[in-house]
């Protein structure tokens, strides 16, 4: 089966836009030709998509998402989460193990893969837990989890509190060539605080999460990564102090990589309008200074990639208020338009930088075959209308989650079609 995408605008190696026709054969990019003219030999039964001058990029890759299944299907399922991802232009997503049961056993890894296959939308790569039930007491069986298909180990949702436990995990992961992905949070410095330490917390009489609670784990883990030689990846970086430590570690050649979420690049605690839990996430929105540090770190490569940390919760759960509601916001369906509007339209970033941080860079960091437009690579593609402008309406989300702080934001650069392995899995209208 052949798929042809004509009139595509594609970023070349120099970050310049070029007109191309993309030929896909059996789910793989076959060739890319200059211009919009079709090759003469179009096989019978070929499907031709006219991109009409829209941007075509490698499919976005999101290495940090929560699909909630098994156990929390009222928040999201693998099917609804996959659809939401496709609608946001994502073709590969890596899901966190804080499900119920926790993905700490081979059966649950297999179940996630099976449900993803049934959904048949995007590539779903499962992470497995570092510790049983993410309780921080006993390591999981890394070899069995890898064998079942887990792509890395993480207790996301909670930090691994015990340094020896983390060191043992890293040593074993290193011996198997697997990465350790860390949610960095020292619980002794947090104690039930719902927002960041700062003006907002003071004003509303709330306990505050200090920056050190993240950075202490980052610093500790960098030392443990140096000692064990593991690939250590830092989740949702949000503080200036963590960035300082990561930058230094990279300079001396420690194998550390890092990710940042759109909300930590765009929002600070100053933007929180009031006690609305759609503004509650972990890590919390921090100071303007931290936001600027995150932006600069993504620009200079200290932070390697963008992830959404898509974290759907039900309206009932989020209605419990700032103190009691669970942490987390949805992310798939707003990620690209947010970053495009706030950073590319404003002239701060090139389009190429943004696209790379969501495609080639995550592929490089995690050793995936996708993330580029080249012959022989899986035909995972996103078509984007950079001119389309509309407001964020959570009621239209494919996700079950409506928990976003970006309601009514007017944004440009919406995906219009998503192709996975040469198959259109989502398209506008
Ligand atoms: N980010 C969040 O605020 N919440 C995540 C957990 C996590 O990513 O730590 C969740 O599972 O809801
Ligand atoms: Zn986390
Ligand atoms: Zn998460």
From TrEMBL:
Binds 2 Zn(2+) ions per subunit. Pathway: Pyrimidine metabolism; UMP biosynthesis via de novo pathway; (S)-dihydroorotate from bicarbonate: step 3/3. Residues 53-241 form the Dihydroorotase catalytic domain. It catalyses: (S)-dihydroorotate + H2O = N-carbamoyl-L-aspartate + H(+). Keywords: Hydrolase, Metal-binding, Pyrimidine biosynthesis, Zinc. It is an enzyme of class 3 (hydrolase). InterPro entries: DHOase, DHOase/Allantoinase_Hydrolase, DHOase_cat, Dihydroorotase_CS, Metal-dep_hydrolase_composite, Metal_Hydrolase. Belongs to the metallo-dependent hydrolases superfamily. DHOase family. Class I DHOase subfamily. Catalyzes the reversible cyclization of carbamoyl aspartate to dihydroorotate. This is Dihydroorotase. It comes from Paenibacillus aceti.
